[in-house]
Design a protein that fits this description.
79% helix, elongated, mainly alpha
Length: 171
């Protein structure tokens, strides 16, 4: 958690200094790798933590992971793969469905299947990109980095989570 907070703050600092610099790109790649590691830890060890801690750790991993991937169109590649698989599968049909295994019906069904997959997954991709852009806006990322640092320090000290401390203060 502390590493995620520090990485978020380093990314914000290097972004604010020069968003086209090699340092910023290097920090993004380190954040990407750290995000993968953090999400793996969150998924495998969440049962020992409070719900708030598990959510913060998973969100920190996602935030660091998604930052460099916002401009890659994975959906198009996936839709083309589905089109190819459907086209190949339709070529194996026999019997009553043999008419679909050749010519224009085979091509049309493959395109329709690929288009449907593209439509559904493009919508999901845009939702993920929107959430990623909101979380990676530098003021939000800086605040999130500070929350991660505070939560990590509380976890190391063996104290309650930040959420529990705020709840106690409010009561």
């Amino acid at each position: 958690m502390i590493a995620a907070g520090l990485m978020a703050l380093l990314i914000v600092a290097s972004y604010r200094k020069d968003k086209d610099s090699t340092t910023y790109k290097f920090m993004m790649m380190l954040g990407f790798l750290l995000g993968i590691f953090i999400m793996f830890i969150a998924v495998s060890r969440y049962s020992n933590w409070s719900t708030f801690d598990a959510a913060i750790v998973l969100l920190a991993g996602f935030t660091l992971f998604i930052r460099p991937l916002t401009k890659i169109d994975f959906v198009l590649l996936f839709a083309l793969l589905v089109m190819g698989i459907v086209y190949i599968y339709l070529g194996t049909l026999t019997g009553d469905l043999a008419g679909l295994s050749e010519g224009y019906p085979r091509i049309i069904l493959a395109v329709v299947a690929g288009s449907f997959v593209y439509m559904v997954f493009h919508f999901l991709e845009k939702i993920v990109q929107f959430v990623g852009k909101v979380l990676n806006c530098w003021p939000v990322l800086a605040i999130f980095g500070l929350i991660c640092l505070a939560e990590g320090a509380l976890m190391l000290a063996g104290c309650d989570s930040l959420f529990n401390l705020v709840q106690e203060y409010m009561n």
